[in-house]
Input
Amino acid sequence: MIQVITEGLMLGLSTGAYCVGVCMVFFMPYLLIEGKQNIHENLKNILLFLSGRFIAYIAFAWVMAVVGTTYRELFTVRFSHASLIVASLLMLGYAFIHNFSDSKSCMPYLHKLRFMRIPFFLGLFSGLNPCMPFLVGVARLWTLQSVVLGVVLFIAFFFGTSVYMIPLLFVAYLNRIERVRQIGVIVAILSGLWFLVIGISGLINF
Amino acid sequence: MEKISKKSFYSSVVGASVLFFFLLIFSFISAKDNIPLLYAKLFWALVVSYLGFCIYRSQNISKYRSILFILIAFFFFLEFKFFRFASVAETIPPYCHIAQASTLLNFIYNQFLAITGGHWEIWGALSLGFLWLIIMFTIGQGICSWVCFYGGIDEACSKIRKKPLLKLRVTKKWRDFPIALLIFLLIMSFLQGLPVFCNWFCPLKLTTSFWDTVPVIRIAQMILFSLLLGVFLVILPVITKKRTFCSLICPFGALVSICGRLSPYRVTICKEKCTLCKKCLEVCPVFAIEDHDLKEYKISSYCNRCCKCLDVCPTKAIKITVLNNLETISLGKQRGWQIEIKNLFIFLSLLIAGVVSGTFVPLVILQVMGGQ
Output
């Protein structure tokens, strides 16, 4: 058990910069747009995002450990790309609605999206993206041949990668400037479009 | 016809001669034992120095800067694409600062690997990184209007028509698009370990082998390359007389607008002298002049130091100064010798433009003449 925890932590710590890079693309623009000037609010958003990722990791590890390699491609390629598409659409929708938040027709949607706890869903769907460290974790999981150990590995992997999320806490403070918020919207749209294309091409190639 | 004053003639000759002297040293060092190359470098140094003389003599900065700028872009284009038109060997361009800006994180990571791997001698920061720092600490954003080859192409297209067919207004939000694109490219390039700008956005890649092997992606790349080349580098500059690629796309311009603050030089508008005639606003090719409720004009950090506004301002309210609004430096109080900050900036810009272009223009000249 301790060996599996250590492995998961080490995998997360060693590949976390890359892993967070992908998640950052989803979450950083959100923080630039919605970040608050007090640490509690920002921490709350980050914890929401992390809890989304946490659930995604555990659910994915559990399913992978149960079904084994039988439906490997279905889950690691099709399912993860579909999840990427959902995360991209969520972010695109949010960015567009925020961009037109002054118009009366968009205001109710923006309130709804805020109420929906967007960071949680961004974490949930981006947590399942087909990034390399995640796939390495999955490969190791299959060699363990145990559902519990698989889930433990991914929990440790989650904590290893989450260390790299700490700097995001300070990104939110940049949005004091209105210009930064606008830039955040554009980055969100660009990244959303990019991952939408990657998700769709991943599904087509499958 | 304006009478030529002897003093300004002599000071122009001195300024151009000092510039030629520095370029001469650079030519001797870089040409080594290659005599034809040395002659080509000396010829190019003369061209740059002569244009410097014209700037000092006429004080019409933007006109002669534009000639040099477009010439550099033309020669770069020849070096990059000449093999497509003539039977000469394909050459690799010496640098691409735009690709460097969008892959800055990859660059830093590689330098980290080089240092930790013990290969300090391949530490790029000693060469290109160092040059880049020098430029940032001296002319800053000036690189975009004095050295950059993309800017030269954009400027050449914007010069085709005498008057704009379309008056383009750009909101602050769209003016900030390059910064957003830069952030996006930095993260994506780092994640993919690839220069995403070169793969997807560089108009000059339309004729090179950067295309993907997957047909759908190839088509998408071709559409993006063509769109950026056609719309932002050719059509919009021609009809609006603005450098639209530089101001609405270029990620390097965005990086320089942030890092260029290291340079002490600033273009400032004197409130007392400004009559709000809008001439500067109309000629600025990169939408860097903001009108604050039509009460005052301010120059933003996107200013490329092209000096067009300086030349058109009827009341000479726009000046190049250093940080504390200093306009001149006194050399000898008794003799009254003074150097204008503007002329110092022009000198540094010409020197950097001469040195950077001196690494490829002489080679192209030789190649075109069949020398190499």
About this structure: The beta strands of chain B are 265-269, 289-292, 296-299, 318-322, 328-332, 337-340. Residues 6-31 of chain B form the longest helix (26 residues).
